[in-house]
From TrEMBL, chains A, B:
Domain Nudix hydrolase: 42-167
Pfam family, one: Zn_ribbon_Nudix
Domain of life: Bacteria
Cofactor: Mg(2+)
Top-level enzyme category: hydrolase
Signal peptide span: none
Entry protein name: NUDIX hydrolase
């Protein structure tokens, strides 16, 4: 997902927009010379889970059936939608991508991905079953211990960082406290 | 800030859009019949701080010089911008709205405001000075103890919830641990 592309036309009236700094603002925005609408572009949230089978600490990953990063492994996650909370979005993505039966836990990670204008939020989740039903966006969904994780085939840095932190916390016997991180 | 309004025109080519469920999707999106672009609308982040003068626990609030809620009091906060982290955005808004000299702390609150499609994130911040320089978006900026807070003149529920939680934590002698909350 690249940094949001510049807008060409006004989504209110269809006229060609101009980029300029509106009055009382400090940044360039897409401004409509016809209807005066100002169109903002802001970072988006990607919400997902870190689903753990607590009996042995293994983590659920999904192998992507879609671009970008087709064929690589990821924690279940996707863009937050209107009408849902962050946690509801994370649970929805886990159902859609892995068909996993989970009990949602607290927020574990907030990772800024500045270069692409995203904030990734991962919630802890307790798996109630080891039976999965991956949806059309996943080629497969399976559990991995730390030794089994395909570290060279992880789709996104935020998945890698979250997995590394989880396994570190687990090895150290630490509680899985919330952490935040900024990636450029 | 109302729930995002529906798009009328394609921001890529200017043609009138149609709302329908695209292939491989489950929700209605604004789809362009001319150039096939799909336009998504997603929740936005509002980022701010809970700035505390630690000597006595007073909190910095700003009185709004702009709509909505002109004349009412708020924690310094605003929409997160592209090119910054959540914490950077929170610090920027605190500088813009209050001209406060702060040391940023950890994330304190994540509050879903589902009805308006927003996620509000408040960071703890330690004030280094009690001299403020409110910008054009604020009528004034000043410190309040719990007894002094103008509870009937608070601009936003997320400010109210965050202040209440902070003063509860403080009275109870609890650490100011991260909390999350969903408002409909």
């Amino acid at each position: 997902m690249p940094f949001p592309t510049r807008l060409q036309h006004c989504s209110t009236c269809g006229a060609a927009v101009q980029y300029r700094v509106p009055a009382d603002d400090t940044r360039e925005r897409a401004v409509c010379p016809a209807c005066s609408a100002i169109h903002y572009q802001n970072p988006l949230n990607v919400v997902g889970t870190l689903p753990v089978w607590e009996a042995d600490g293994r983590v659920l990953l999904c192998r992507r059936a879609i671009e970008p990063r087709h064929g690589l492994w990821t924690l279940p996650a996707g863009f937050m939608e209107l009408g849902e909370t962050c946690a509801e979005g994370a649970a929805r993505e886990t159902a859609e991508e892995a068909g996993a039966d989970i009990e949602m836990g607290p927020l574990y990670a907030l990772i800024d991905v500045v270069r692409v204008g995203q904030v990734h939020l991962f919630y802890r989740a307790r798996l109630r079953s080891t039976t999965f039903d991956p949806g059309p966006e996943s080629l497969e969904a399976r559990l991995f211990s730390e030794d089994e994780v395909p570290w060279d085939e992880i789709a996104f840095r935020t998945t890698r960082e979250t997995l590394q932190r989880y396994f570190e916390d687990r090895r150290a016997g630490r509680p899985f406290d919330f952490f935040s991180l900024a990636l450029q």
